[in-house]
Amino acid sequence: MAEGVFRQAFVEVNNFESRIRSAGLGALVGHPPDPKAIQLMMEKGIDISDHRARQLNQEIIRKSDLILVMELDQKNTIEEIEPTARGKVFRLGEWGGFDIPDPYQKEIHVFEETLILIEQGVSQWIKKL
């Protein structure tokens, strides 16, 4: 959901696309998004149905200019995996001082709450970028 929201917001503000991709620390590689996430995003006019999960690795970390994570633990883990990532890994909720919990295998209301936090974090980051 975060990739879709961020991509749409970035294009709206900058009038061009940038390379925005998501990857997970414990990704179910090749799997599509949860149907609840697809549904919520379609309601926002964002189609994420073609997305497939990919695993974060050192190459992706090294090639990225900015890495946004959902939780502080994820930031710490990435910096342990690849110490050169320090200074380019931040929480999506960094400016608001909040983590965004993973809604995976939870009820739709948890996905809705997560999406609200994602939208808040993206809005704050778009202003900073």
UniProtKB/TrEMBL annotation:
<keyword id="KW-0378">Hydrolase</keyword>
<dbReference type="InterPro" id="IPR017867">
    <property type="entry name" value="Tyr_phospatase_low_mol_wt"/>
</dbReference>
<dbReference type="InterPro" id="IPR023485">
    <property type="entry name" value="Ptyr_pPase"/>
</dbReference>
<comment type="similarity">
    <text>Belongs to the low molecular weight phosphotyrosine protein phosphatase family.</text>
</comment>
<feature type="active site" description="Proton donor">
    <location>
        <position position="102"/>
    </location>
</feature>
<protein>
    <recommendedName>
        <fullName>protein-tyrosine-phosphatase</fullName>
        <ecNumber>3.1.3.48</ecNumber>
    </recommendedName>
</protein>
<keyword id="KW-0904">Protein phosphatase</keyword>
<dbReference type="InterPro" id="IPR036196">
    <property type="entry name" value="Ptyr_pPase_sf"/>
</dbReference>
<dbReference type="InterPro" id="IPR050438">
    <property type="entry name" value="LMW_PTPase"/>
</dbReference>
<dbReference type="GO" id="GO:0004725">
    <property type="term" value="F:protein tyrosine phosphatase activity"/>
</dbReference>
<feature type="domain" description="Phosphotyrosine protein phosphatase I">
    <location>
        <begin position="1"/>
        <end position="128"/>
    </location>
</feature>
<dbReference type="Pfam" id="PF01451">
    <property type="entry name" value="LMWPc"/>
</dbReference>
